[in-house]
Amino acid sequence: MIKSWLVIGVVAILVAFGLARLNTPEGNRWFNRQRRPHWLTFEKLIPVIWTVILICGVWSAYNVWEAAPAANPPWGLMALYLLLEVAIMLYTPSMFWFKNLRAGTIVGAAGWIIGLILAILVYPVSAMGTILLIPYLLWSPIGTYVTWVMEGLNSVES
């Protein structure tokens, strides 16, 4: 039988790399031209932060899967984990495709709501699963706020 951690990890990697391929060089150039708030001194750490958050998400899903009764696999929760990862990974492509920072703000906010719902639903199955979602729940509003501020800095005035 295939180990749950292997299935969860492979699915997470496939989703992450598959959706990251939706980023375009043109969108990346557009995003790099956007003005940032002066206090955004930690931008170079953002890839590391997201790597830690995604690892915590995979670990959380694994904890939930292992804590659930064998006779009743938590398919619904696994679907929510997948939806959360899709929301996280669509943040950048949504801005790149539309060349619109508001798209990122909306996707970021929607992801946080999904993450909060997931954390609440996971708690009865695995408290550790919920604890491992806390980094996302803390970071996501920061990233969404940065994008929202950038939207204001880069708005086109008539």
Automatic annotation (TrEMBL):
Pfam families: TspO_MBR. GO terms for biological process: tetrapyrrole metabolic process. It is found in: Membrane. This is TspO protein. PANTHER family: PERIPHERAL-TYPE BENZODIAZEPINE RECEPTOR, TRANSLOCATOR PROTEIN. Keywords: Membrane, Transmembrane, Transmembrane helix. It comes from the Bacteria. The keyword Transmembrane helix applies. The chain crosses the membrane at residues 6-24, 45-65, 77-98, 110-138. GO terms for cellular component: membrane. It is a multi-pass membrane protein.
